[in-house]
Each structure stands twice: as C-alpha cells, then as structure tokens.
C-alpha cells in the first residue's frame, strides 16, 4: 500500500485546479501536501492533466525521495524549507499567476487595498530573489512570510501560498491573484486607499473564526 494515497490524489487535483483558475500555465508552478514528516509533491515536468497518484513522489522534510519513480519538483528544497519553518502548514501551492507575478517582478509588496488580503495577512510581502530550485529561495520566502502571513511574492518569479490543507492553500493563492489584480487596476486609475493594520487584523480573525482560514 502506497504512502499518503489521499495526499497524492490531492496533488494532481490541486495542480489541475491551478490551471483551471489560470494561476499558472503548462507545467509551471508546483504543489505539495504533507502529513507529519512525509510530503507528496508534484513530479517534475509532468503536465498536471497526466498527474495520477502513482506518479506523485513522496519525500521527507529533508527532501529525500522515499517513494515514486519520477523526480520530485525542482522546487522541492523550497517546499521542505518552508515546512521545516512552519509546522502549522499542511500544504503549499506555488503559482505563476500573472497579476501577482507582475508585482513580484517589480519587487513590490501588495498592501491592503482590498479587504480580502486578510486571507494572507496585513499585506502580501515580497521575498528577495534567489535562483529557482534552491534552498535559499525557500529561506527567503519563509523569512518574508514569518508566522503572520500565508503567502509571499517571490521576486522575479511568482507566488507561494500556504495553508493547513490543500484547499486552504489554493484559496490563499486565488485570493493573492485577486488582490493583485484589484491593486493593479486601482493604481491604473489613481491612488488606492489602504486599510489600516488594525482593520485587517480584525478581518483575519473573523475569517479564522467563521471559515477556519488562517
């Protein structure tokens, strides 16, 4: 019996949903779901339509492949670094969503110009640049998120979103792109009004209590 069968199924489902929501294209991005010290993660270079539970590798929190014939995602070091830093995180979704990636390319965080940013934190912070596939990228992402944010922009790259479950992480990734689009459009018209930190904190508490979203 394979390890983490349900988690492996979720990896494929989450990847296909990323495509459906236009949060990435082709084989871009990656997802992972963990239970304890075992992590099911996207196989490298496999179209999401072709990802089945049997093709999803299992690694440990040090990135060592334990099960599966295919190579784990090249971004495995980023995922494992974040998991080691954030024991509350049960899933990670990495996207290349266009509006959020635009701000990532500018090296600019996204402030609270829309209340739904509370799904992430007081803002969507931006992490410094490091080459894809490196542990350094994970360290920069974890540092920028800290314990108070559930997503981060990766400079000149894309987005990392985390959650207690795969559905939570995907929801955060979706909210990141929505807030990025609204902020982009607002900047094109004028100067957005930014919600005060206290208001965003209250909204975040409300989301946690009503929807279980961290």
Write the layout of secondary structure elements.
Layout: H1 5-20, E1 30-35, E2 38-41, E3 58-60, E4 65-67, H2 76-85, E5 91-95, H3 98-106, E6 126-127, H4 135-145, E7 151-154, E8 158-163, H5 166-189, H6 197-211
Parallel strand pairs: 6-7
Antiparallel strand pairs: 1-2, 1-5, 2-3, 3-4, 5-8, 7-8
Helix pairs in contact: 2-4, 3-5
Brief overview, please?
The protein has 214 residues and is α+β, with helices and mostly antiparallel strands.
What would you say this structure looks like, in words?
With 214 residues, the protein is of the alpha+beta class. Helix content is 40%, strand content 15%. The chain contains six helices and eight strands; from the N terminus they run αββββαβαβαββαα. The chain has helices spanning 5-20, 76-85, 98-106, 135-145, 166-189, 197-211, and strands spanning 30-35, 38-41, 58-60, 65-67, 91-95, 126-127, 151-154, 158-163. It has an eight-stranded mixed sheet with strand order 4-3-2-1-5-8-7-6, sandwiched between helices. β7 and β8 form a beta hairpin. The longest helix has 24 residues, at 166-189. The mean pLDDT is 95.
């Amino acid at each position: 019996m394979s390890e983490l069968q349900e988690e492996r199924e979720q990896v494929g489902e989450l990847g296909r949903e990323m495509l459906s929501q236009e949060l990435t294209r082709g084989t871009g991005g990656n997802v992972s779901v963990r239970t304890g010290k075992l992590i099911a993660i996207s196989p490298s270079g496999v179209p999401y339509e072709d990802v089945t539970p049997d093709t999803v590798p299992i690694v440990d929190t040090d990135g060592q492949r334990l099960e599966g014939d295919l190579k784990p995602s090249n971004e495995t070091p980023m995922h494992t670094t974040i998991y080691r830093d954030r024991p509350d995180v049960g899933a990670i979704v990495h996207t290349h969503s266009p509006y959020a990636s635009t701000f990532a390319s500018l090296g600019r965080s996204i402030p609270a110009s829309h209340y739904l940013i509370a799904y992430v934190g007081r803002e969507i912070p931006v992490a410094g640049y490091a080459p894809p596939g490196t542990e350094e990228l994970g360290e920069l992402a974890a540092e920028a998120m800290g314990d108070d944010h559930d997503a981060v922009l990766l400079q000149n790259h894309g987005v990392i979103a985390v959650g207690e479950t795969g559905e939570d992480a995907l929801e955060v990734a979706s909210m990141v792109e929505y807030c990025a689009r609204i902020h982009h459009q607002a900047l094109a018209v004028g100067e957005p009004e930014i919600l005060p930190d206290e208001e965003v904190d209250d909204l975040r508490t409300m989301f946690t209590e009503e929807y279980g979203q961290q």
